[in-house]
Design goal:
Chain lengths: ~325, ~325, ~325, ~325
């Protein structure tokens, strides 16, 4: 895990792009920390899984994507949504179960989606996304758009048959698909070193005929670079890639998790590895951005999240009239 | 112009006509062409029973063979459907749903609702069901009740070549996920089918035969079994009205209820296992909505609560036949309080 | 001696007592202990909602955590059951059946029949079902009708701590594959439960409440909803008889039919989606077998034909409640031809 | 693919064992060729998949197994059944759907089983067996019998998620399980070189933390040796192995397959690689067995198959009384 801002990457990203990346990561972090607080008050219903600590992955990958591209996410989906451009206020309202939410309150945290943004949904099924992404990649290929599909999934999901067979299908069909294994060390309370019978998830790539890459998930630039290469190759017809991103999740598996199964890891990671801290010191030390630029973003983001929570709380819930609508297009 | 063609040909023609009409229609499944990577001919199979034969050469790049990875390729069809394609994926036997059901019932079926009405998933899953080919317990089931149970899915069960073509074209044009259940013992059945493209709307039953004495609702291949029974019954003075729902979800409850309001008697013929199946579904509907008209107990003719046996001697007993249908009809026709 | 304990504790106690009694009983599932390979405590979770907590240390080597590979570990439980073990595998949420259904319905359920009576597969699959926890469309379903449909499976749906313990012990001792459906909103419900081990035989309904006016058959958590409705109805002069089938396969048809023969009226309360569910199954049974006694249409109170919504405002409308049950009872009680 | 009879293997196998191996392979071959003929007459119902050409795999693996051990098979299961000791006459009767069959006529070719022999069944579901074998291996481990579980599956099945996740589970639980990938070049009409996105199926082993071995499936001794090592390791607590056996199936995917998708491969294999021919010439050339011994086996096998077919044809079918029995132990 090196700390040099690779020149090619530095070259690719202008100030605006750097600021945008920072804004995305900061938005995710602020969103999650606020949901964490609000959940504790008891006002947010259901199961909520937070992405804090993992921001560099969603952000570094999605920075390469545009409207031709689709992503599929997991139960831990807020970060992917934000990085793919889903409206933050609508997301917050969705988490509160409000009619103004991304899914009119019908989906909740585990199902936030915005198909108009190419965000195919958080997914309550571990391993649910990779098959779908074979499909969005196939569509892009058939339509000749140059688009790619990206499946984000966890270390736990890397043991699910649906994920594994998707790797093979993507290779056999030579799809423009990227499989991003987010190895945050645990699936619920189970360590990935135990559940994944290989040194790295990326080691599985060879068995499915594609390159496997390991990146430091605390390092936005490392993710950005690896994803860029894979996405470029995919767009050019070079087929799929498996990227393993390694990092730590900052909160419990879901809100309420006591986390007796792990020890000091989180505090250490937060202190020494944190993606936001590292990004900040790197771009300032190399003179690409000023502290003041970043602090301004922090303030804007903080205001946005405040507004999102206020509006979400004030918004109306769906009503009986909504219960049976939108099951089908027509029935 | 109508000609006599087989159920297999009707399905093939529906696929071909829709592929011709709409470039977003693609077809995929294990050996749907056949021969990929081999040293011999491509389109070597055209599906395990030849249903997709010929499409591969006619529509280059649009008939995709797949590895044996039903979750991945059925899921891929679903994912592609959210992005402007109209994929028709083949789940070779309906019995294989167990390795890919999640993609169907938790993903495709729920997207629109979970995502607040903002998703559209026009995918068709063609699949083969039913007993009669001595294919035994894992290749002979009639699992459409399970799909019918799931909100968000539509389920078509064509009983004849005419229905097969019209329902499949509708399935492909439909904007919701459709499970299209082809009875494997019907592929060689023939019937009049228009050459031109046509659709049969979902949720519109077909009254196959008029009659005032007993309503028989029959699903899929059971329609012809019911017809056979009806002929025999007619000669003994019982006139049966046969209703073929054609789609089990949506279900044309109106036509069924109207018929029972006239006849006062109901027999449902369903090849599926007896618990929580279409026979119970339709019987319960009638017992709730048309109770006042019912003049006899409802009757249900179904498979027994057993896996499908292999031996022909047993399988022939397993499948509902015209005799059992006739007996059920007689019992409700003759029933007295 | 009976004490008041929770549904969660009753299940835990059943597991512990059977593990104590029979060394071939093992328990497996994702985080059934929790903490495997981690830097902290083992038995960190005891299942996602704490149901298996404490067993790991009490029965060394017999509580197995698993990777997230439901086909592999549910299949492993099934395979082990054919070789002398009595595994209890946890499918965390019943909604996850879609990734492992094949092992359950094509393997475990069919072995005995397909293999000519020579196999025995005493496996239990514990799984959580039901709405009410704002867990949304993929974590709230009541899919027991699907398992009930499958010949070869037994399905238990305990409605209270007492039922949970007795049915689980029976499930473990039973020599057939059992799907044991725990309602997640019942885990904190309490009730009197004997300390000693006991079994509740399958296929024996419990008449929860006697009444001569209307029979209400209710499944799982719907039993307490029906009881609430019955209390309210009693004060307006309608006495409801509540039947809890306890197992949906086998189903105690006798008790249901006897009750309806007395009351002449039936309401079935089923949390599942309305098509091909237990409500239709039981309604159809009654409309066939007790038609002569029926003095009103059957009524069914079920979830609507939609996925389970997330928002509490919608989910509370989705789940059948006492008011809807009471309305249904009144409608059949007051029905006139 | 070497032709030297490895000394360790030669040492392990005495004359009786060699004769037994030959008898098993010959029985499978004769069984399958006869079923092929009989199927053509129209008297055998259903879908029938023949194992001819692949005899060395089932035989070389099962030669190491005893009653502690269980195997799971596929739709192409006759060979595995015979090699694990299922009664040949009962098998034939089963294929004819007779009451005297291994499964009383209820199972048929795709479901022949004999649990008393540790034969968990042919299986109509591609990828159905590997999870089950994790279970039989787990049972052996829990019971401390030293038994192993063996899952036979095809190249096509190696792409099924259920198979892949079983590899991982077996490693994570360190099970005494052997995964035998029978790569006969095709899944139905689809070439394994196309459907398996890796050079070899065995290459997938590394991603699941177990050794992967490739053997010449026409060579009984090669299979025997590789299986022996894997099974020994498993019995000693050394965990699972993936063995890829490469060969060619002699008949079509199922009876009735026109096989336009492949060319000369079969004739060449039958002529130059056939496992029975090679076994025969090796054991006679090295002086381990006499031609006459082998010919005597041929005759005995041929008589057995004749008798099996005659008895199967003459046997009664099950009757209505059998239709609803044996669904449950009790209901
Ligand atoms: C098919 C399925 N099995 C199990 C679960 C329950 N579950 C939800 S999240 C989770 C852990 C996932 O771990 P991982 O893939 O590493 O993702 P992370 O939570 O670490 O982001 C589990 C077991 C599920 N939702 N779906
Ligand atoms: C889940 C499932 N999908 C598809 C099939 C249909 N099918 C039966 S055999 C077969 C090919 C299997 O190929 P392989 O695993 O290589 O075994 P082989 O036939 O070559 O022995 C297919 C696709 C099935 N039985 N089960
Ligand atoms: Mg994880
Ligand atoms: Mg093969």
């Amino acid at each position: 895990m090196t700390d040099t801002l690779s020149t090619s990457v530095a070259h690719e990203l202008d100030e605006n792009a750097l600021l945008q990346a920072y804004r995305t990561m900061r938005t995710i972090r602020a969103f999650e920390e606020r949901v964490h607080e609000e959940f504790a008050t008891g006002e947010i219903p259901g199961f909520v899984h937070l992405y804090a600590g993992e921001e560099a992955s969603a952000t570094g990958v999605c920075a390469h994507l545009d409207e031709r591209d689709a992503i599929a996410s997991t139960h831990r989906g807020h970060g992917h949504c934000i990085a793919k451009g889903v409206d933050v206020k609508a997301m917050m309202a969705e988490i509160y179960g409000k009619k103004t939410g991304s899914c009119q309150g019908k989906g909740g945290s585990m199902h936030i989606a915005d198909l108009s943004k190419g965000m195919l949904g958080a997914n309550g099924i571990v391993g649910g996304g990779p098959p779908l992404i074979c499909g969005t990649a196939l569509a892009a290929k058939q339509q000749g758009t140059g688009g790619v599909g990206v499946a984000f999934f966890g270390d736990g999901a890397s043991n699910q048959g649906t994920t594994l067979e998707s790797l093979n299908l993507a290779s056999v069909w030579n799809l423009p698909a990227i499989f991003v294994a987010e190895n945050n060390g645990y699936a619920e309370a189970t360590a990935s070193t135990w559940s994944v019978a290989a040194d790295n998830i990326a080691d599985r790539a060879a068995g499915f005929g594609m390159p496997g890459v390991i990146v430091d998930g605390f390092d936005f630039f490392a993710v950005y670079e690896a994803a860029g290469e894979a996405i470029r190759r995919a767009r050019e017809g070079g087929g799929p890639t498996l990227i393993e991103v390694k990092f730590t999740r900052y909160f419990g598996h879901f809100e309420g998790d006591q986390q007796t199964y792990r020890a000091q890891e989180v505090a250490e990671a937060r202190e020494n590895l944190d993606c936001l801290k590292r990004f900040r010191s790197r771009v300032t030390e190399t003179g690409r951005l000023e502290e003041a630029d970043l602090t301004a973003v922090d303030t804007q983001v903080s205001d946005l999240i405040d507004a999102a929570v206020d509006e979400a709380k004030a918004a109306p819930k769906p009503t009986e009239a909504d219960l049976a609508t939108d099951v089908y297009v027509s029935y | 112009m109508a000609r006599t063609i087989s159920y297999r040909e009707a399905i093939n023609e529906a696929l071909a006509q829709e592929m011709e009409r709409d470039g977003s229609v693609i077809v995929m499944g294990e050996d749907n062409a056949g021969g990929a990577g081999g040293s011999g001919a491509e389109d070597a199979w055209g599906g395990v029973l030849g249903v997709t034969k010929g499409l591969y050469h006619r529509f280059p790049g649009r008939v995709l063979d797949t590895p044996i990875s039903e979750s991945a390729f059925v899921g891929a069809a679903i994912g592609a459907a959210t992005r402007g394609m109209r994929p028709v994926a083949e789940l070779m036997f309906i019995d294989f749903m167990g390795v890919c059901f999640d993609q169907i019932f938790n993903q495709a079926a729920k997207f629109r609702y979970m995502f607040g009405g903002k998703a559209q998933t026009p995918v068709v899953i063609r699949t083969m069901y039913g007993a009669g080919l001595r294919a035994a317990a894992q290749h002979s089931q009639a699992l459409y009740p399970i799909f019918t149970h799931i909100p968000g899915l539509k389920v078509a069960v064509p009983s004849s070549p005419y229905e097969a073509k019209g329902l499949l074209i509708q399935s492909i044009r439909d904007n919701d996920p459709v499970i299209f259940c082809e009875h494997k013992a019907l592929y060689d059945a023939t019937g009049d089918v228009p050459e031109d493209s046509y659709t049969i709307p979902f949720g519109e039953a077909n009254v196959v035969r008029d009659g005032d004495d007993v309503t028989v609702v029959a699903i899929g291949r059971m329609v012809s079994v019911a017809e056979e029974a009806a002929k025999a019954l007619s000669s003994s003075g019982i006139e049966v009205e046969i209703v073929d729902p054609r789609t089990t979800s949506p279900l044309d409850t109106e036509t069924i209820l109207e018929s029972v309001e006239n006849t006062g008697r109901l027999v449902v013929v369903d090849e599926a296992s007896p618990r929580c199946n279409l026979a119970t579904d339709i019987s319960a509907l009638v017992a709730r909505e048309a109770f006042g008209s019912l003049r006899a107990p409802v009757e249900m003719v179904t498979a027994p609560h057993t896996p499908v046996p292999f031996s022909d001697a047993l399988e022939d007993l397993y499948i509902p036949d015209a005799q059992r249908v006739a007996n059920a009809v007689k019992s409700v026709a003759e029933w007295k309080r």
